[in-house]
Design a protein that fits this description.
The complex is a heterotrimer of chains A (319), B (291) and C (260). With 319 residues, chain A is mainly α. Helix content of chain A is 75%, strand content 1%. A two-stranded antiparallel sheet of chain A has the order 1-2. The chains are: A mainly alpha (319), B mainly alpha (291), C alpha/beta (260).
Chain lengths: 319, 291, 260
């Protein structure tokens, strides 16, 4: 789509402007939206582009968050330096999990990753790791101050920082999708046998995709730890994985802009549900989710893509 | 030492029976619809609450039991016809979204209608531990027996009745099934109903042990998934055996290797290892793709 | 979407007159103006044909002409429009299961066997719509036509040879005692000897059961040998129609349209 760079630039300008328009609490919410968008983007790469379903990405989110937490509390590493570290750690774990994932397909992979995500809180609470992970109580993280004495509040700085990282990651992923590697990933998703026959090394690419995806979601986890200033095992139950998955599906599984829509959904709809019904907010949330699936089975991204196609090619008559 | 191991194994068989029942329900829906019902656990919990309500208004246990099973069957059929039918032609991930939504709705409804306090659920088998030298409680024995009866009944239904054959046909090849006059849509609904009924029985068997609250089945669902994966998600027998195996592994791991805190993680890791070696599960069909 | 190219008339060949319906005899299956397609693609552009009671009509044509689509349209397996009558009653808006219950049995392309089930279970499924007491007798009747199936009752259907699977598919269709049998390329992928054997059995079935058949075939010679009426389908339109005997004898038509 030729309009995409212009549109993206416009969105970015609006988002930057938001830093100066909203209160600190709303900025925190927006920061979380960007964080979720990055996390979901990791899944977009893995599931949308490469066709590997993971219901356990909350695990990488947690690993990223804890890497940041541990580095900052145990070794006083500055917050921005923990990001590359988290990226490397998560990429490593992603690769490790990507290896056995090669043998599992579709449903088995989904359920196995789900099972692994469930194990995460238990491992984090494990007594032997307590000295680093802070056990059940978790770790408290200091809020970073704006650098170079810039005239911004810490929340504003954090939001802009997260936004910058997010924009960079979105750009990288967008380039990836349009390039050779992205096409190879999608070839594997659509017809693995044919892809292999064309000389694509499936095993290598799939594990690398897993690693890249884990890295992306892991960095999101790091950013979330910095924003929330707190990590604890019970913040990373399987519910995180489910929530991210909901964001992926609502946004559109193979849609890059969809990741942003999905993030908005998972950040704001639970609050909305709470306002509608104090007694059964989960039910309201579930109803809204199901309604979205009925109306937009391919997510917001899919619906938008269809709209664009219809507008771009008017009057195509069927014979 | 040996007696301790035996106790853990027998106890594992008892809990394994519950996992096996839920695993069977999962596999049934999977075979019929090629979808995993992530809301299976919540439906079972809801059914157990219904049973408790029936007991609390004065019905004798087994009448309440049958009532809860029948109502659950109806709810299962209704969910398939109303909720899942429109999703027939939607992408797989959209269906998963609907399942997650269903999970959240039922979980929330359970809490709202029946509140979040932990409740006791009666066992029809008494609470003594008289058998096998005190290693097996009468409830464990009774629930294992009930589980086995259910599993055998389901097996007989599928192998030896016309309806059971029709359901299997609809699951294997819906197009050909229509060509012999089977109403495939209703077969799916029946599959959901049966799965819901089995889930209800599993819920009522496990509630006396772990006590009833809206999140009762979450852990059990996970073990059931693990059991179904281990046995092979397209094999009902595999799911059952897998469920029992997971029960035993969980107990042994918890007692002798890692303690109760990590037994869930370890059980899962074992399952992952099995899957790496044999991806389609112990009894699953190996899918060879023709070029 | 571009209009499909006009079908050129081969030079010097008078087109045989279209026979819309058999004179004075109500047809078992009467199809008029059938249109059908998949998604946005239109495959059939309005075709007319008929099958007489106890008769055999053959639908011939090359790959992609729309033969399989026609059978699927009759059974309601895809979106279609037009006038389809079974013994005078319209079935063009009915669901597949209802059409089957009215006595239409379809042996689909690829046979549609339940590969994971046994031969016996496949046959029992054929009898799904029959009353329970008659089902047994209906299945036994099949062994008279296909003795090989009786030998392989407990075998998993997926392990049968191609010819045996075709026999199983036909047997399964017959068990429901249809008025109309739809056969989609029964000769596909089979050795000539097996094909001959199957058509001998089909002749017997036709004589003894009195069931009408609509036969779709790429193997034109064997189809024309068997059928009463023949229709030639080309890119979704019927270009030649008439008694099979006449078409078989007409060298010019055979060479232009059937390639032999």
């Amino acid at each position: 789509m030729r309009a995409t760079p212009a549109l993206a630039a416009l969105v970015l300008i609006v988002l930057v402007a938001a830093a100066f328009l909203f209160s600190d609490y709303h900025l925190f919410q927006l920061t979380m939206v960007v964080v979720y968008a990055i996390a979901i983007l990791g899944m977009t790469m893995l599931t949308g582009f490469n066709g590997q379903i993971s219901l356990g990405h909350g695990a990488f989110y947690a690993i990223g968050a804890y890497t940041t937490g541990v580095l900052m509390t145990a070794w006083d590493v500055p917050y921005w330096a923990t990001l590359p570290a988290a990226a490397v750690v998560c990429a490593g774990f992603g690769f490790l999990i990507g290896l056995p994932a090669l043998r599992l397909g579709g449903l088995y992979l989904a359920l196995t990753t789900f099972a692994l995500a469930v194990a995460v809180p238990q491992v984090l609470k494990y007594k032997s790791f307590e000295q680093w992970t802070g056990g059940v109580q978790g770790l408290v993280i200091d809020k970073p101050d704006p650098p170079f004495g810039l005239p911004l509040s810490p929340d504003q700085w954090l939001y802009l920082f997260t936004l910058a990282i997010g924009a960079a990651i979105f750009l990288l992923v967008w380039n990836l999708a349009r390039g050779r590697i992205g096409r190879a990933m999608m070839a594997i998703r659509d017809h693995a046998l044919a892809a292999e026959a064309m000389g694509i090394n499936i095993a290598l690419l799939k594990t690398r995709t897993f690693a890249a995806s884990a890295m992306c979601t892991g960095v999101a986890g790091s950013l979330s730890a910095i924003a929330i200033q707190f990590v604890a095992p019970d913040s990373f139950t399987v519910f995180v994985s489910i929530t991210l998955f909901v964001g992926l599906v609502v946004g559109g599984v193979a849609s890059i802009p969809g990741a942003l829509f999905g993030a908005v959904f998972i950040e704001f709809i639970p609050n909305l549900a709470d306002q509608v019904s104090k007694a059964a907010p989960g039910a309201v949330y579930g109803v809204i989710l199901i309604a979205c699936m009925y109306v937009m089975p391919s997510g917001v991204g899919g619906a938008l893509a269809r709209l664009v196609r219809r507008v771009a090619r008017p009057g195509r008559r069927v014979g | 030492m040996m007696q301790g191991v035996l106790h853990q194994v027998i106890s594992g068989i008892a809990t394994g029976g519950i996992y096996a029942s839920v695993a069977l329900a999962l596999v049934m829906i999977y075979q019929a619809t090629h979808h995993v019902n992530f809301a299976q656990g919540e439906m079972a919990t809801f059914s157990t609450y219904i049973a408790l309500t029936l007991i609390n208004i004065g019905l004798p246990y087994w009448i309440a039991f049958i009532g809860a099973v029948a109502i659950s069957f109806a709810i299962g059929v209704a969910i398939e016809r109303i909720l899942m039918r429109p999703m027939e032609n939607a992408p797989v991930l959209a269906s998963v979204g609907v399942f997650v939504g269903l999970l959240l709705i039922i979980n929330s409804l359970s809490g709202w209608l029946f509140d979040y306090t932990i409740k006791q659920f009666p066992s029809p088998f008494g609470s003594g531990t008289p058998l096998f030298g005190g290693y097996v409680s009468s409830h464990e024995l009774g629930s294992t027996a009930v589980t086995l009866i259910v599993l055998i009944a389901v097996y007989m239904f599928f192998r030896h009745t016309r309806l059971g054959l029709g359901m299997r046909a609809a699951a294997f090849n819906p197009v050909s099934a229509r060509l012999v006059g089977i109403q495939v849509g209703w077969m799916l609904a029946l599959g959901w109903g049966l799965a819901a009924a089995i889930g209800a029985i599993a819920g009522m068997m496990v509630a006396p042990i772990v006590f009833l609250d809206p999140n009762m089945m979450a852990g059990i669902l996970l073990y059931a998934f693990a059991g179904a994966l281990l046995g092979g998600i397209d094999s009902p027998l595999g799911a059952v055996l897998g469920g029992f195996a997971v029960g035993i592994i969980e107990n042994l791991m918890g007692a002798y290797v890692v303690g109760t805190e990590l037994k869930l993680s370890v059980a899962l890791i074992i399952i992952v290892c099995v899957l790496v070696v044999k991806p389609s599960g112990l009894l699953g069909r190996k899918v060879t793709s023709r070029v | 979407m571009l209009a499909p190219p006009k079908v050129p008339s081969p030079p010097n060949v008078p087109a045989l007159p279209n026979v819309p319906a058999l004179p004075n005899v109500p047809a078992l299956l009467d199809v008029k103006g059938l249109r059908a397609g998949y998604g946005e693609t239109q495959v059939l552009h309005g075709i007319d044909f008929a099958v007489a009671h106890g008769g055999v009509s053959a639908l011939l044509g090359a790959n992609g002409a729309g033969k399989t689509t026609t059978l699927r349209a009759i059974c309601g397996m895809l979106r279609r429009s037009g006038d389809i009558r079974l013994d005078g009653a319209r079935i063009d808006a009915s669901a597949t299961e209802d059409i089957v219950r009215r006595g239409v049995a379809h042996v689909p392309d690829g046979r549609g066997t339940f590969l994971e089930l046994t031969v016996e279970e496949n046959l029992r499924l054929g009898a799904y719509t029959r009353p329970a007491d008659e089902a047994r007798a209906d299945i036994m009747r099949m062994f008279g036509y296909f003795p090989r199936l009786e030998q392989r009752l407990r075998q998993q259907a997926g392990t049968l040879s191609g010819g045996e699977q075709q026999m199983l598919a036909i047997a399964r269709a017959l068990v429901l005692r249809p008025r109309l049998l739809l056969l989609d390329e029964p000769s596909f992928g089979l050795a000539p000897l097996i094909i001959a054997e199957i058509f001998v059995i089909l002749r017997r079935i036709r004589a003894e059961e009195g069931v009408g058949m609509l036969l779709v075939e790429q193997n034109a010679s064997i189809a024309l040998d068997f059928a009463d009426q023949a229709y030639l389908l080309e890119t979704g339109r019927i270009v030649v129609a008439g008694p099979a005997e006449d078409i078989r004898r007409d060298e010019a038509v055979r060479r232009s349209y059937l390639g032999y």
